[in-house]
Amino acid sequence: MSLRRVVLALAVATAAAPGCVERELRIESEPPGADVWIDGRHAGKTPLREPFTFYGNRGLELRHGGCTPVRQTMPVNAPWFQIIPLDFFFEHLWPGTLRDVHEVKIVMEPAMEEDPLSLIEKAKRWRAEAEKTPAK
Question: What is the pLDDT of residues 14-44, one digit of tens each?
């Protein structure tokens, strides 16, 4: 068999290889049903399963009626099989599917109800401070 045929056979085998990595964020909240924003984009309600492509930090925001909104950063670090140069092998040549799941569960606190009179007093103080501050 000639070298040319061997190289061609390897190229065809590489192109047809079923290697795959599936990445997923799983976000749960207590109570469930919170609206979730990932990096400023509304992604749905909890429990949420969101596929992703790139690693790095994700900005999460959860909102639920009657609860204090939660904002936090979720680190999404690459596993060992996604580190260069191993990533090429597992993305393209590995004969199966690898799953990389990052999970977070966020417990939301009930919103603190403030006395309406104290809110009015705060608003008056803020207005007075704003009127004293010169415009830039």
Answer: 555 556 889 999 999 999 999 999 999 999 9
37: which residues sit within 8 A by CB, 6+ positions away? 43, 59, 60, 61, 62, 63
| 97 touches 22 (CB < 8 A) | yes
pTM to 2 decimal places: 0.67
Q: What residues contact 94, with CB distance under 8 A and at least 6 apart? A: 17, 19, 20
- Point out which residues pair with 105 in neighbouring strands: 28
Element (H, E) at 27: strand 20-30
The two beta strands, 97-107 and 20-30, are parallel
- From the candidate CATH numbers 2.60.40, 3.30.70, 1.10.10, 3.30.420, the one assigned to the domain spanning 20-127: 2.60.40
pLDDT tens, position by position, 44-54: 999 999 999 99
